[in-house]
Design brief:
binds 6-O-phosphono-alpha-D-glucopyranose, alpha/beta, 23 strands, six-stranded parallel β-sheet, ten-stranded mixed β-sheet
Length: 744
């Protein structure tokens, strides 16, 4: 379709160009002709003109002019003396610039006018009585003596009508030729495509008579049909939506159910203080991104049942249908003992791998006991996947650093499964990764996946370097793939994003209402300037640096004291880990110090809201704020930055964003800062609060357009399309292998 439109536009431009060229050329020819005709007319009448030129011959002169004017294309004629006086003219001669004096100024009567025929003549177009006329003024000499000049006014309408006809003819001819050429090209390409696919189908029919080849041929035939279908559908892609993702899943993966494996569940059931059971949306970028995908694809989410009321809300198989009230997919809860949770989740995943992968100055702790639990829990989740599948080649999406071993464990038991793994956090350089005592086993485990995704190409490169350094495997740098035991794992960047439009923005109150409510809750004066930070209480988020930047802001810009308030929403996280407890204390002390230093009366520059906040409340703060500061010291992507942008459908508000987030590569209209540089960060905060509404709008609009296009449906769609391709290739090669085995 796109090709056809481009072709049509190209042909139209070609026809238009040809018409313009032809029109210009014919007009030049016609005008030249008129000039020559005028010269000929004067030459023919020269004798008679000279004889009747003086006053006594005035009547004769008039007769000569009337004679000349008989030509159907000459409208009027006049004779003027060499000093610009009118001597005679035919009826109808006139016009603003056709007086003898004016025309005389353009005609040359000097000796040079006799050098060649037409040398002193003047030709031009004038407008007379609303129509264009072509005027030729030709000098008349008696020997060497200039007598004056003859003015011929030609009718141009016949030229214009000829031109119109010529133009129409050219347009028709070119249009016809171009359309014919396009048609021939299209038919030729269709025929060659059709004959190619028909030829393969024919071969399949012939070969299909041999039973040994039937399974392979069935697959090849399927493949041809799919390539044809993909080719057709690729032309009409458009924006990525939940619907398009569903269609893609049907097309590439035959609508098969997807199974997500992620430690954190999207809905936790918790006991409330009053004894009732409530549903909580955990604070997790992974959950934010993945939940709309599973909702769109109706799969199963296998997760740790960590909510206090989780066991009470599942069926006999540990399943619960969600989202509450919508029930479009299932969570399959896996139960962990306190020892397992301690060793696998708090220990190896969050005290070992988490600090290993983030450059945030926390020393990783590796205990072999923790790793034993990690390994056992990975087995447990792989078992749970096995119980959920109803095919021998299911599609399993393994998520994050909690499950580095799971891809291989799943593949061992389901060799034909399509396993993708997405690593939601950064991947360190090979040297740094090498400090992990179980580095080889982790890498082998991950390579059980057919596709391994990271947020950025830099993380992919670090991973490939780690494989290169610690494993016996071939790295195909062109394909970005690792080949081991005859299997390939593609290593690709898939930058994660949000659903668009964001569910919580659509259900949020208007911005003015959010602002009024939040200002009232925080007791802010109406001209206050509000900054927000939204995070789990995690040392990688740079919350200390953020509060220090606020302190520096107030130090450097006294005018903001009493006016600028920073509200930090901080969800308690991984609180059983000492490092997280320390962070909590440090932040509390820091906020108290800044408030002590710059607070006055009821004014407190820093408001710490340390509790779990449900998404509607988080979005209220995003919408109420003048700025949002994301100051991570190292972050794979950071979806808070994207959420703030998604929340601002009023196109106001400024995002101040750490350069050490994956998001900084995409949201380039944010004010990008180094969070360690307090001068730079505080300057950015100052610029943010004084930015004009127009500039805010421009920046916000550009960032919103980016996220709208590069949304999470695209993220999942691209990964699933790649998975679908790998799957078809795997199916085909396993059939080929089986057929070859049978033939031996
Ligand atoms: C990061 C990880 C996620 C995790 C989230 C919240 O975003 O990549 O896997 O779910 O933090 O952490 P938590 O330990 O509470 O699940």
């Amino acid at each position: 379709m796109r090709f056809a439109i481009a072709l049509a536009v190209g042909l139209a431009l070609l026809t238009w160009g040809a018409t313009v060229i032809v029109q210009k050329t014919t007009r030049a020819w016609f005008e030249n002709d008129l000039g020559v005709r005028a010269q000929l007319a004067v030459n023919g009448a020269r004798e008679a003109l000279i004889a009747s030129w003086d006053q006594t011959g005035a009547d004769k002169l008039q007769t000569v002019l009337d004679e000349l004017a008989r030509d159907e294309h000459i409208k009027a004629v006049a004779v003027c003396s060499a000093d610009g006086r009118p001597l005679a003219r035919t009826a109808g001669y006139g016009g603003r610039h056709l007086s003898c004096a004016e025309v005389g100024a353009r005609v040359r009567l000097g000796p040079e006018a006799q050098d060649s025929p037409g040398a002193g003549a003047w030709n031009g177009i004038e407008r007379v009585s609303g129509a264009n006329v072509y005027v030729s003024a030709v000098p008349v000499f008696d020997g060497d003596r200039p007598l004056g000049f003859l003015v011929l006014v030609h009718d141009l309408s016949f030229i214009e009508s000829r031109e119109t006809k010529a133009r129409q003819f050219v347009m028709l001819a070119f249009g016809f030729l171009a359309a014919a050429a396009a048609l021939v090209t299209l038919i030729a390409s269709r025929l060659s495509w059709k004959s190619w696919s028909n030829e393969i189908r024919r071969l399949l029919r012939v070969g299909g008579q041999d039973p040994d080849f039937q399974p392979i041929l069935r697959d090849v035939s399927e493949l041809v049909d799919r390539i044809v279908a993909e080719r057709e559908s690729d032309n009409g892609g458009g924006a990525w939506t939940a619907q398009r993702l569903k269609t893609t899943l049907n097309r590439y993966l035959r609508g098969e159910k997807i199974i997500v494996v992620a430690n954190r569940e999207p809905y936790m059931h918790q006991h409330r203080p009053d004894g009732s059971i409530g549903v909580v949306h955990p604070a997790s970028g992974l959950v934010t991104a993945l939940e709309p995908i599973v909702r769109a694809c109706s799969g199963v989410w296998v997760a740790h049942g960590g909510g206090t009321a989780d066991r009470e809300t599942v069926d006999a198989h540990g399943r619960v249908r969600v989202p509450p009230g919508e029930e479009s997919y299932s969570i399959r809860r896996v139960w962990l003992s306190p020892e397992e949770e301690q060793g696998y989740y708090y220990g190896f995943a969050n005290e070992g791998l988490w600090p290993l992968c983030h450059l945030a100055h926390a020393r990783p702790i590796f205990r072999s006991g923790d790793y034993q639990h990690y390994r056992a829990v990975n087995h447990k989740f792989a078992d749970a996947v096995l119980r959920e599948v109803d095919l021998d080649d299911p599609i399993v999406l393994v998520q994050d650093y909690h499950f580095a071993l799971a891809p291989q464990l799943i593949r061992e038991r389901l060799p034909r499964a399509t396993v993708t793994m997405f690593w939601h956090i950064p991947w360190p350089n090979a040297e740094h990764f090498g400090i992990c005592p179980w580095r080889e086993e982790l890498l082998e485990g991950m390579l059980g996946a057919s596709i391994l995704g990271f947020h950025t190409q830099a993380h992919c490169n670090n991973f490939l370097d780690s494989v290169d350094r610690y494993l016996e495997a071939r790295i195909d740098r062109d394909q970005n793939a690792v080949i081991q035991h005859g299997r390939a794992t593609l290593v690709r960047p898939y930058p994660i994003s949000l659903e668009w439009p964001a569910r919580w923005t659509q259900s949020a109150p208007p911005v003015e209402q959010c602002r009024a409510e939040v200002f009232a809750e925080l007791g802010l004066r109406s001209d206050a300037l509000l900054g927000v930070g939204v995070d789990r209480l995690d040392y990688t988020k740079g919350i200390e640096e953020r509060l220090l930047a606020v302190e520096r802001l107030l130090e450097r810009f006294p005018r903001l004291r009493g006016r600028f308030v920073f509200a930090q929403l901080a969800a308690p996280s991984r609180t059983a880990i000492v490092r997280y407890q320390q962070l909590n204390d440090v932040i509390e002390e820091l906020a108290a110090r800044v408030n002590q230093r710059y607070g006055r009366g009821s004014y407190k520059p820093i408001v710490l809201l340390r509790e779990h906040h449900e998404p509607p409340n988080v979005f209220r703060y995003y919408r109420a704020a003048d700025l949002c500061y994301v100051s991570s010291l190292h972050d794979g992507m950071n979806l808070v930055a994207k959420e703030f942008v998604a929340a601002r459908d009023d196109e106001q508000g400024v995002l101040v964003l750490s350069q050490f987030t994956g998001a900084a590569r995409e949201l380039t209209e944010a004010l990008i800062v180094n969070p360690y540089d307090l001068d730079e960060a505080s300057s950015a905060l100052a610029s943010a609060v004084s930015m004009t509404r127009e500039e805010q709008r421009e920046r916000m609009r550009a960032m919103r357009a980016f996220i709208a296009e590069f949304n999470v449906y695209r993220w999942a769609g691209r990964m699933l399309v790649d998975a679908g391709r790998v799957r078809r290739k795997d199916r085909l090669s396993s059939r080929v292998a089986r057929a070859a085995g049978a033939a031996e």
